[in-house]
Specification:
With about 575 residues, this protein is α+β, with helices and mostly antiparallel strands.
Length: about 575
Amino acid sequence: MAAAAAVSTASSAAVTNKSHLSSSLDKPFSSPSQKLLSLAAKTLPKPYHHHHRTLITAASKNPLTDVVSSKPNPDGRSFDSYFDDDDKPREECGVVGIYGDSEASRLCYLALHALQHRGQEGAGIVCVNDNVLKSITGVGLVSDVFSESKLDQLPGDLAIGHVRYSTAGSSMLKNVQPFVASYRFGSVGVAHNGNLVNYKQLRGELEENGSIFNTSSDTEVVLHLIAISKARPFLLRIVEACEKIEGAYSMVFATEDKLVAVRDPYGFRPLVMGRRSNGAVVFASETCALDLIEATYEREVLPGEVVVVDKEGVQSICLMPHPEPKSCIFEHIYFALPNSVVFGRSVYESRRAFGEILATEAPVECDVVIAVPDSGVVAALGYAAKAGVPFQQGLIRSHYVGRTFIEPSQKIRDFGVKLKLSPVRAVLEGKRVVVVDDSIVRGTTSSKIVRLLKEAGAKEVHMRIASPPIIASCYYGVDTPSSEELISNRMSVEEIREYIGSDSLAFLPIESLNKLLGSDSKSYCYACFSGNYPVEPTGKVKRIGDFMDDGLSGDMDSIDGGWLPGSSKVQKKTILNEVRTS
């Protein structure tokens, strides 16, 4: 009876069906791991050596992406057709800032490696030496962009770094951060994680006044606002610029003598502060970056706070009166690494609890619990422990899939998924299987995974999703499809279950998520689950990926569907007449 009651209370979330800058002089490393160890050896100490809305009823089981056009490669096949199999929201950036260590660039390199999951398309480091800002950026993974000789070109004790994700673009390199600009009072570098929702308006105003933009990134707007500010000293220029931008931003700035960290008043994206044993101050998007370079976590950079580090020490300044925080809940669901502490909570503990909730509220008779690796593993462990069912590795993920690969002339079904995930028949054959994943976006991958498991002999496949249904796009620094492409915005839970072919399907109820978070629940952003945005976007709207940040040039208004019709007025931020130092 208790189990039946649990199923009843979760009826809206569970449906069951039992009937079915390169140099040629750089010395290459034989492997990325050898390269990382070699560079780390020069830096680290010796011990490191040895609610659903049914808008459209599905009439077909064809993937939604079949009706979405994408740019073909020279062979006539779409690169994205393979990588749609990831079918996950993508975190767009990770940032690092280091002050007070003679090997700042090498530490920055290692910290960026720890943040590689937040962006794999480009990486860059800016280092300050003798009051000169030197920048090296490149396209690809951190280990591809930086070599021994390149890091030797970045001496100094102050550095900032950035990794980014973006859709592919022909001129993407110019959009790889950190950006460096010179103006009448010196030079400044910036690395930004987030997205400015009033970017179009600000860029238009700046261009009308003669500003010239070199990139299509919203981050460049911040540099222009700093350059035109008449405030003195430099710190107040940053404050004045931040009073004009709206949306999500966790940023680190480097000047000739200062490292500055800034977080938006809502605290959408994470930013933490730590300190090494030699007193060097470190800022990073996640605590896992601090761990790798042996920096001790001290605290978060607070929403609306500006932290300045220079030879005088660390100063904290209130940027502006900030509203209730709205931190991104997806950091705990998918983006952050399980060993990170984000927004003051352990990511591992959050995900394990999500799985336990699913086992309690949407139980099902099963023989084995498996995960969609890697992001579903911790939630699956929680589900299995709570349900008293063994957890096993039913899917093995390949970590060696490149950006391009050659498909045989005889087409292989579900080619992209099979490249990444291999089923273990010994675990699955004849079994009733619960498979736990972190989210469903378009539904294309889920349908292929279900088919893969059943072809490997699974008797039943029950999908459990460790997040509520995603019904709305994100405008705060996450690359998600437009709302029209999100399957939970188009179909009911039962329609999604039928579409992906699973025997049952359940999502994490939003009410249970709020209950788990307790008194902190109001401080998280749930816009992707509700469509209620803390900061209304006033111009930029995403289609497939973030076209504004992938090297696109030309008139932004010429992109069909790229902008919101009209401009919603957002209440102006309060501008402080006085900035108080705490």
